Structures are given as structure tokens and as C-alpha cells.
What does this fold into?
Amino acid sequence: MSNLARVNNLGELFLSKTEKFSANPFATELAKRNHKPAFGKVEDGYFSISYGELRDIALRIASYMIKEEYPEDTKIGLLSENSVYWPAVYFAAQLLGMTIVPLDTQMKPRDNIHYLRHSGAGILFTSSDVYESMDLDLAKGLKIKETVLLDGSSFNGASSLEEILEGVKPANVRDLNIDKIGKDSTAALL
It folds into this structure.
């Protein structure tokens, strides 16, 4: 019998695999100039994180969402270029039984706003470049309580991922109730 047969949902699979491969490199990307990340390391102009660090970041995002009292039925908008933080947000949603709404940075900003509005997303994780290009007047009336930038510092009403996670301890896996997330739960709204 494979290990997958014993896994009930994506959150459990994520925890199992990130624990097993904790020390292994997960992802590397070109570091932004003068970037001093709170997580991972920068070497020779590249920023990288291990599977263990990915797990830690996802558990910190989950802890933050719990602390801010986001309800279990929260839809999480994820509108960003490829980044080492993208899967951390995705799996934090899976750990909480929330639904991720991944959006495409290549689409027109008004189309992404339409999908955010239609999905009922309550929080948006995005990048500085994408956020700067959004038509904030068109975005009025969205149910988004908070916008979090995956890169850079907070600005124009948006928080920074590194700033909101500063001092936040990773969620205790036992407190997440992952085992109560069913196989039929909606993981993503595409």
C-alpha cells in the first residue's frame, strides 16, 4: 500500500513530504537587490529555501490567518509571479481547509479583479509589481480584508509577508485539525 492511500488531504501530504525532505533544497530564485529575507538564504545572488523552511513559512501563514480570525470558509486570492512563497501560501490554505483562488498575472488587471470579486476572496497575496498595476478604483467593493505582498515592503495599504510573519510562531500541527478536512473539500477555485 502506498503512503498516498493513508493521506486524507493535500495538507497532510504537504506535512508528510516536507518533514521527510526537510533538509533538501526546495526552490531557488534570483534574489532581489538588497533583499535580506526573514526566511531562507541568499548566496551568489540567489535566494533559496529548503523543504523545512517551506513548511515553516506555510505554518506561519496558517498561524497568522488563525490569529487574524479568518473564517474556515475564507477564499484566498493568490495573484503573483512564480516565487518561492507562492507554494507556501497555497499550502497554508490547504493546512487550514481554506480554498485557494490562483490567478494569472498575464491576464488583464480588470479580469483578475472580476475573478477576485466573483470568488469572494477575503485576503489577497500578490507581488509588488502586480499590486502597483491594479486599478484600485475598480477593485473597490471587493470582500478583501487584507492584501499581503510576497516581496518587498508594505505600501499603499498593503502589508508585507515578511512583516506580518515577524514574530509569528509556526502553527502547531495538532491545532490545525487537518484530519477533519475531507477528501471532497474544495482545495482550489480555478
